[in-house]
Give the backbone structure.
Amino acid sequence: MLKLMRTHATSWVIKIILGAIVLVFVFWGVGTFSSRPENKAATVNGEVISQEDYRESYNNLLEQYRQRFGGNLNEDMMKMLNLKKQALDQLIDRNLMRRQALKLDFRVSDKEIADFVQKTEAFQENGAFNERKYKNILAYHHLTPEKFETLQKDAMLTDKLRNLIINSVKVSDEEAREWYKWNDASVRIDYAMFKPDKYQDIKPTDEEITAYFDKNKAKYKTEAKVRIEFLHFKPDTYSSRVTVTDEEIREYYEGNSKEFENPKKVSARHIMIKADKGSDANMIEEKKKKAVEVYEKVKAGGDFAELAKAHSEDPGSKDKGGDLGEFTQDRMVKPFADKAFTMNVGDISEPVLTDFGWHIIKVEKITEASTTSLDDAKEKIRKKMTDDRAKSLAYDEAEAVYATLPRSEDMTKAAQAKNLTVVKTEFLERKDIFEKKDKYNGIENRSKLATLVFSLNPLELSEIEDLGDGYYIV
């Protein structure tokens, strides 16, 4: 086991398991995304990993690294990170884990999926699951509920397997000691350095250059490039055609009343004495005594904000004098919220226990629940209805134009006949699209555009695509 731990220092548990699960045969093609004749990136035990799944995995990885490194992510760094292999490895690992989970008869029920979706805060409003918000968030990320729930089911399956593995691993004291010795060992070395820039009198012949090139052609490969032309149907340009009546606004207001309810809000400060969830009773009691001591100082007239700076163990609010800002009841853990929302302005609570520890709460402001009136909401509703209808008009226009365009030749003539402007770019690599080197002031969803254009054949017409700021035909 120690040998395995040394060999696989960073991920030995998962390597052992994957090695025990199955022998993998991966057939990996050479070339760019668009040059493969088959829609197959790899085969795992007879099951195909599609090019589409591979591209999505690659693009997700690329986007993560772009967000992490920003403009420092260059071609050399991308080669060093080996994103293509990372993306494929992720898909293979996911496939293997899912297969083994099913083999061990792990199951994820519809109820488990439903519970996960309903308890995910991102899909909630006022602490309750909101189906409209759920579908809107998924649509923004170009997912259907069915696709999302399938992906989540696979993730939950592999989590069950992973938990079984991790909870079953036992490491003896001797193994831990050996691991520590190996991981923290140090060596002293002597070395001599030969700097290449000292050797200047080197003149390779044409034959040597040709031979080197022939042997290292892969180093001189360029990335795939595409030249794009597209039509953009901007919803904004259709707004002037939309009329929204006061009666329609009133009907929307009455039919969507919850949208205009404003829940009660409280502004408060707190002083927290940490007591981690699961601490024993004696520890919790010790922490309470400390909290009570601070509480007595507050009640004796001490400045709450200064005492928070001196004693609070909440790093997020300590330096702000315990200020938590304004929040709704569903934003805070239940014991804290239950107490804060029963207090009056100026009240200071005795210590309240939550999963994070003991809290002394001071309420500074209360904004009672209210409902936005129709008059106050009218312009917001008008804009929303106008935007929705303008978007529908833009799609209708795109659909009408799409029906007249040739499917396998330049669209310019057909578009000009309808007084439409075709935007044309120079040749672009995938990274150029993300960096907006097409110079087009638009196209919000760059990731979707990159995936789309590198999946089309030359002169092939895309479907009508929503790229975030309107509809496109590419």
Notes: Residues 374-402 form the longest helix (29 residues). The chain has three domains: 2-173, 226-255+373-473, 264-368. The two ends are 56 Å apart (CA to CA).
